[in-house]
Design goal:
By secondary structure, this protein is of the alpha/beta class. It contains four helices and 13 strands. The protein is globular. The relative contact order is 0.17.
Length: 246
């Protein structure tokens, strides 16, 4: 039995250029959809670039007019587009993932902040899951993945896919990748990691976005930086992967 195609977008963003970044998201999402993908995950704060100092002035909601193309692309191509954005709730400013689905949008807010992010953002809540063709997808944003309790909670909630939008530098990629691989193996979840393709916020990126199967084996991984689209799907007990350079 073939499962849904899952996609990870390793993209570069431009500081504060929401319109241009939306165009990048649409380009990747349309390419993923043509390959049969039912979900595509982008890096942390991908709609604005990882720029905490402009997050308040560039805060978004899923129904913002500037994001109309993402909503229409999700509907037209029957794909879930998971884009990173600053988001303001009654509790304050969050780092969020907007999951644009054909039937509407959902919001996940980052639960665990990285050191220094508390100067700009407040913690969000856990628990958002969506269903896609029999899979249960839970979300994570960067520092969430460094807390084992976050992945444990996703697994207890029935997640079969753990989708993380991240910004990881070269110094952190080995530790973080090994931790995500361990979650896949210990919780029998497919794990998706979408990292930046180019520097962001004045920091270098490691790239090396990846998809691990529920045994913790690498299905597909970018070899380094640069824009790339990673796709994977189940074929019986195994998973098959594909990497496209855009």
């Amino acid at each position: 039995m073939r499962g849904p195609v899952l996609a990870v977008a390793q993209t570069a963003s431009t500081r504060g250029d929401i319109e241009g970044n939306v165009e990048t998201h649409v380009r990747f999402a349309e390419t993923a959809a043509r390959r049969g993908a039912r979900i595509v995950v982008f890096p942390e704060l991908s709609l604005t670039d990882y720029e905490p100092d402009i997050a308040a002035s560039h805060a978004l909601t899923p129904d913002d007019p500037c994001l109309h193309t993402l909503r229409s692309t999700a509907e037209e191509h029957t794909i879930t587009i998971v884009a990173g954005a600053p988001y303001r709730s009654p509790e304050g400013l969050h780092i969020a993932a907007f999951a644009f689905q054909p039937e509407g949008a959902r919001v996940y807010t980052k639960h665990h902040l990285h050191h220094g992010e508390e100067a700009f953002f407040v913690p969000g809540v856990m628990g958002l899951q969506i269903g896609i063709d029999g899979e249960r997808v839970s979300f994570a944003i960067c520092a969430d993945t460094t807390h084992p309790t976050h992945a444990e909670a996703a697994a207890r909630g029935g997640a079969t896919v753990y989708a993380a939008g991240v910004f990881i530098t070269p110094t952190g990629i080995e530790v973080d990748s090994n931790q995500l691989r361990g979650y896949a193996r210990s919780h029998q979840m497919v794990v998706l990691m979408a990292n930046y393709a180019a520097p962001s916020g004045g920091f270098p990126t490691a790239g090396r976005s990846a998809i691990w199967d529920s045994e913790g084996e690498t299905v597909i991984q970018a070899t380094g930086t640069g824009e790339a689209l990673l796709l994977a799907h189940r074929e019986g007990a195994a998973m098959k992967g594909e990497l496209i350079t855009l």
